[in-house]
Specification:
Elements (H helix, E strand, L loop, with lengths): L1 H8 L1 E3 H8 L3 H13 L4 E3 L2 E3 L10 H4 L4 H12 L7 E4 L3 H10 L5 E5 L2 H7 L5 E5 L3 E3 L4 E3 L1 H6 L5 E6 L3 E3 L3 E4 L2 H12 L1 E7 L11 E4 L6 E5 L6 H12 L3 E5 L3 E2 L5 E2 L51
Parallel strand pairs: 4-5, 4-9, 5-6, 9-12, 12-14, 14-15
Antiparallel strand pairs: 1-3, 2-3, 7-8, 10-11, 11-13, 16-17
Helix pairs in contact: 2-3, 5-6, 6-7
Length: about 325
């Protein structure tokens, strides 16, 4: 059953495997190790992929069934960082699609995207303006890519970019398995004053072929709570925090990054502050840039949520 799921989806989290086969993650982890020893799959942080998964990319139908609970929690938290009247860019992906569904309730929002799925999620939102890039349709993830997409983003300036990818490491940043997707994501990053990465714990420590956002350009990571046994994911989160990335964990409880305690019923996220402006951020271009920014008329504002400062021990 485990091997069949991995073959069908390309990558599956231990949580998802345990849920489907109705057993514990401890048992699933043992079975995954045995299959890896036979060369039938490769282990990744919190999950398993087919051999050669470094270059493999699953299509949308497969990705949409992976880590669904985690993506929902991440999207809920990411939406809390978006203010009324902002102008933002949202990249392609199943997690960003979940985010878009929640953004439909934010009045006065302008969303620039290369994703048909993001646009579809916002199509009936009366108070949200959707701006699509040009480009060539990439059917596997319903995204517009190529020179047309990149050229349409030239001269654009928004407050924030929300992106996902195939892997995230402290050493290399966000990466993806497709060259065309990576190129458009880099153009989206150039248009934004801040970069917010949405990545569930299974992507932490995973490195894929094409870098999209180097670590020093990532303002904030929104992720889910890694399993208690996943020391490698926790180590990766600490390494990212050490490099100045704000870590916001959906549904966080217990130990925070660096060991500080977060009351389970009082905190739904934890955050590590960036020490000073991130590279590539325009001085004075704060998180409150509004929709007029797209037209070259920036307006000022302030971020809604105050986040907890976690002191690393």
């Amino acid at each position: 059953m485990i091997l069949e799921m991995v073959r069908a989806n390309g990558a599956v989290s231990l949580r998802e495997l345990a849920r489907v086969v109705q057993t514990s993650e401890v048992t699933v982890r043992r079975d995954v190790r045995a299959l890896e020893a036979e060369g039938l799959l490769d282990r990744r942080h919190g999950g398993a992929v087919l051999p050669g998964g470094f270059t493999r990319e699953s299509g949308f139908p497969q990705k949409s069934h992976l880590a669904t609970a985690e993506k929902t929690a991440i999207a809920d938290l990411a939406a809390s960082f978006v203010e009324e009247g902002e102008a933002i860019v949202v990249g392609a992906g199943t997690t960003t699609q979940e985010l878009a569904r929640r953004l439909a309730r934010v009045p006065g929002l302008t969303v620039v995207t290369n994703s048909l799925l993001v646009a579809q999620a916002l199509a009936h939102a009366n108070r949200v303006e959707v701006v699509m890039t040009g480009g060539t349709l990439r059917g596997s993830n319903y995204a517009l890519v190529g020179s047309g997409a990149e050229q349409s983003l030239q001269g654009l300036r928004v407050s924030r970019a929300f992106l996902s990818g195939s892997g995230l490491t402290a050493e290399r940043g966000l990466s993806t398995s497709n060259m065309l997707s990576a190129s458009v994501d880099r153009a989206l990053v150039q248009a934004a004053a801040e970069v917010v990465v949405l990545a569930d714990h299974t992507k932490l420590g995973t490195d894929t072929m094409f870098q999209t956002v180097p670590t020093d350009l990532i303002t904030r990571l929104v992720t889910d709570e890694p399993p208690g046994h996943d020391d490698r994911a926790a180590t990766e989160l600490q390494a990212l925090a050490d490099q100045g990335v704000q870590i916001a964990v959906a549904g966080a409880s217990g130990n925070a990054v660096g060991g500080d305690q977060v009351p389970a019923r009082q905190q739904q996220r934890r955050d590590v502050p960036v020490p000073g402006p991130r590279r590539g951020q325009v001085p004075g271009a704060g998180p409150g840039l509004r929709a007029a920014t797209v037209l070259g008329e920036p307006a000022q504002g302030s971020e809604r949520a105050r986040v907890a400062d976690l002191r690393r021990r």
